[in-house]
Amino acid sequence: MTSSDLNWDAIVIGGGHNGLVAAATLAKSGRKVLLLEAGNEVGGAARTEEFAPGFRVSAVAHLLNRLHPDVVKTLELERHGLTIERGDFVPSVALSKDGPLTLHDAYGEVLTGASPAEQSAWKELRAQLLRYAGVLKPFLSRRPPDLGNMSLAEMTGLGQTALALKRLGKEDMRDFLRVLLMNVYDLLDEQLSDDRLKGLLAFDATLGSHLGPRSPTSLLGLYYRLAGEIGGLAGAQVQPKGGMGAVVAAIRAAAEKAGVSIRHASPVARVIVEKGRAVGVVTQTGETLRAKTVVSAVNPATTILDLVGPREVDTGFVRKVKNIRMKGDAAKLHLALDRPPQFTGVDAAGHKGRLVIAPSPDHVERAFNPSKYGEFSPEPVMEITLPSLVDPSLAPPGACVLSAVVQYAPYALKEGWTAGKPKFLKAIMGELEAYAPGIGATVRHAELLTPADIEARYRMPGGHWHHGELQADQMLMSRPVSGWSGYDTPLEGLFLAGAGSHPGGGISGAPGLNAARRIIAMRA
Amino acid sequence: MNHHPTIKPSTDARTAAQSHFRTLRLGTPFQPRIDALGLKQDWYSWAGYRAPHSLWDEELEYFAIRSQAALFDISPMTKYRIEGPDAEAYLDRVTLRDVTKLKPGRVHYTAWCDDEGFVLDDGTLFRLSPTRFRLCSQERHLPWLLDSAFRYDVTVEEETEAVAGLALQGPTSFAILRDAGFAGVERLKVFDLAEFAHDGATVTISRTGFTGDLGYELFVPADKALSLWDRLMTAGELRGIRAIGYTALNRARLEAGLIVANADFTTSEHAIRTDHLRMPDEIGLGFMIDPDKGHFNGRRAILEARARKKLRHVLVGLEIEGNIPAEHAIVYYRKSQEVGLVSAAMWSPMAKRNIALASLQRPYGDTIVDDLWVEIYAMRELQYQKLMKKAKAVPRPFIKLDRRTANLPADF
């Protein structure tokens, strides 16, 4: 019997980490699940790939800071090879000409390199940020509230949020509401004075979005970052051994253990719709596979406009889907180095951490400015990791891998990326050279992935790792589009489970888990 | 000769560049003829065009429809040309009725909805060829139609200004067309259309109309409008052809039980209050819904509303005792409970009944059709006479004329 003869309970399109989480969760509920991955390997943008002979690196996402605890628990990832210990947490180092400043442990429980006054101001601000992010945290693992049609459970959930708000106390609650939609720049100015620290926070708030620190609502990005946790600690981060692919391998093992059938190199051509109901898929090789439920863990616009097609849904819905903003503004740099670089003033522990070039909020804002007009930053800001220092197997002996997320790199570069890419790489190398003198001479191979490259290689439209800008108007009940934020779609039997759905991107597994929970709850 | 208000021209360049406001309402391609006949100077704005309520006598204009032939300018009606290999599939997705069943050379009455299943408008769809259509409606919909065309091989163009339209309605309308030399017009059955030569161009004649009577609609390039008007007027002189205004037409359409968008129901883009939105089932257009055809806009919402019994309104025909028109009267159940509103009403000379269209809140008008009352305020010498008249829900149309559908039409 071939698999096409089988009648699947669920077909999951896309073997990114969210697709794997959704598939595994559904399979654990007793469903017969088939996962179709277009590429030769699962993992999507969370793969570990060789980019130069002997050099391997986490493809897009390189730091694990928000894998949702419910995902770890539900899929028993620890039994499948994912271990995170307190010793794995790595610091964040704000690089500066004035010497580095370091946030240790979980997002700076201890701050070094700053004045005592700044340390005490940071202690207060950090506590406040985590408190406020904590109010939003429960939303991560739930469907966004359905304003028109709220169930008792959703009411209770919202009630709990209201309670969490109230628990903040009167002053804090007022302040929470005051700053919620504020820009990060002004908030930092209220409470801090050290440009290096402010620059780091401004960078984190805007990482992965088309916003500068002075853009309204930019603070939300920082809350999103801090609502994530790893190893039970909010704000913590680890460089997974084996790269992000190792995390995916654990999720994949859980999925296979639960009985998910995984097929590689099986891109889906379209979703079969019969009388308003999704009943299966046709692969690009022409094979028809039918299922009771179709779960798309690929981009929402790709799902609706390409796989389903606008003819099977209403005009207003198509309008909304077409209007999802998803032009990436971040590039990924991979360097194969002859030897580990030396960042000035940074100690050994710091080199194993996250090194951030964002010396001041103004610097981040100035880096953002050109991207509004289709130009890359001449002095880009970036977050750098040296994964082979944590896991030497990622590079040949003595050599080193550098992985960096670089902003800003607009998807639609005015001069085109063919012409722009060498210039942008030169600008990046200039920055690196300033903080790690001599690094340029050790580069054996450089791979720069612009949003256009990320789009082509990882099937992420716009090269946007959130599959849709993560801004206030595309969050919660407006993600991926208003009216359809609860993982279901206008087509019965078709669900969305990727980062384009609430809560958004990053290696969290939350959209995949929430979608699977939604499907299970509907059938229960 | 007409005397329209004129505003003294300014020498100011900026004002000159904004001269559009001097034309308070646009004229249609027939305006020179209509202005010449507009003895009553009783104009209104129809989609921005200067259209007559009445030209010389609204009673006689009405009887021209029923006893002679009436010529009514429908040029302000919004017209879209929809053309391309995917035109059929496109319209099947946009509109309610099954377009695959609409053959070339045929016309059908249809409606279209937004995602929530609320009616955006109703109108007529003309299939001019396998790949070419004309969609006519009350309101404008170009953004919606263009957005709906995403990934269809189809072009959508507004042709309201380029195409002039005339309705020729009434018992002698067929004979007039025949006498005017439109050979073959006798072969048109109701809802058929065909093209005929006119003045070096083509006129599309369909056996359609808004009167419930024998009648035709003619569409012609705007620059051939006046010659068409003259051709019909000349041929119809001895058959009683008369130009008419909207008041007369409105009476005829009410007798025929036909509804008017934004008069009998509020289109969804115009509705401000959410309880004024209407699904097809709520305005008597449920017959258009075909759950077995392919996907169409609003399908999910409409079928869900049906399944969950969420339809709150119903549009009904009412027959009201007495002879005082109940226009915009409130409808009551048991004389006390307010259950709806009359949107159009008249004493029908053809039906010899006092008739109305009303929008009621279900179950009134749906399962409860007895003990309905309307409250009519009749102005008598500066004093309202408040009348509570018994009403009963009756089927539409209120009149049925055999000549409307007769093949071939009689030579009156």
Write the layout of secondary structure elements.
The complex is a heterodimer of chains A (524) and B (412).
Chain A: E1 8-13, H1 17-28, E2 33-36, E3 48-52, E4 55-58, H2 69-74, E5 92-95, E6 101-104, E7 110-112, H3 116-140, H4 152-167, H5 170-179, H6 184-191, H7 195-206, H8 219-227, E8 229-230, E9 233-234, H9 244-257, E10 261-263, E11 268-274, E12 277-283, E13 288-296, H10 300-308, H11 315-322, E14 330-337, H12 348-351, E15 354-357, H13 361-368, E16 381-385, H14 387-390, E17 400-407, H15 417-435, E18 443-449, H16 451-458, E19 494-496, H17 510-523
Parallel strand pairs in A: 1-2, 1-13, 2-10, 5-15, 13-19
Antiparallel strand pairs in A: 3-4, 5-6, 6-7, 8-9, 11-12, 12-13, 14-17, 14-18, 15-16, 16-17
Helix pairs in contact in A: 1-9, 1-17, 3-4, 3-8, 6-7, 7-8, 7-13
Chain B: H1 13-16, H2 31-37, E1 42-46, E2 49-54, H3 58-67, E3 69-73, E4 78-83, H4 87-94, E5 106-113, E6 119-129, E7 132-137, H5 142-148, E8 155-158, E9 163-169, H6 173-179, E10 193-198, E11 201-206, E12 215-221, H7 225-236, E13 241-243, H8 246-255, H9 299-307, E14 313-320, E15 330-333, E16 337-348, E17 353-361, E18 372-379, E19 384-394, H10 402-405
Parallel strand pairs in B: 3-13
Antiparallel strand pairs in B: 1-2, 3-9, 4-7, 4-8, 5-6, 6-7, 9-12, 10-11, 11-12, 14-17, 14-19, 15-16, 15-18, 16-17, 18-19
